[in-house]
Amino acid sequence: MRPPLAPLDGRLDRFDLTVGTAVEFLRGTWPELQDVRFEIGALPAAESDGEVPRWHLDRQGRRIVLFRIPIERLLPPGHDDAAHRRMAIESAVFRAAAEYVGREPWDLGHDH
Predict the structure, then answer these.
(1) Which of 23, 65, 80, 99 has the CB geometry, 3.0–4.6 Å to 56, for a possible disulfide?
(2) 112: pLDDT confidence band, cut at 50, 70 and 90?
(3) Secondary structure of the chain: what % helix, strand, coil (to 5)?
């Protein structure tokens, strides 16, 4: 028998789980995302127009890269807690997917 594995409860694990849950919802809602790979990177290669990008779209390669550190660390003051980090992660996934498919983020619900 193997010893039991420790539960996945680190910051990286929570980030991966939150992204995975949001991606599964989106794939069930938008067929055009079925074959798109969602990847996680630590940091973007360079700043864009003075802003640190939260994601990168590669339409030719059919992939979206989400940058963990800017998403988690560049929250407004007073919003650096688990709930706000989760909302920031989900928001980044939805906004990146919406940009990828050329729609508004709020159009990604089941009703649209």
Answers:
(1) 65
(2) very low
(3) 45, 15, 40
Indicate the length of the chain as a whole number: 112
Residues β-bridged to residue 66: 40, 55
Give dist(CA 33, CA 41) in Å, integer: 19
Task: Name the average pLDDT for the chain.
Answer: 86
Average pLDDT over residues 59-84: 90
Residues 6+ positions from 93 with CB-CB distance below 8 Å: 18, 19, 22, 23, 26, 38, 66
CB 59 within 8 A of CB 32: no
- Give the pLDDT band (50/70/90) at residue 48: low
Sign for the pseudo-dihedral over CA of 51, 68, 87, 26: positive
C-alpha angle with apex 37: 91 to 39, nearest 5 degrees?
A: 60
Q: Can you say whether the dihedral through the CA atoms of 101, 102, 108, 112 is positive or negative?
A: negative
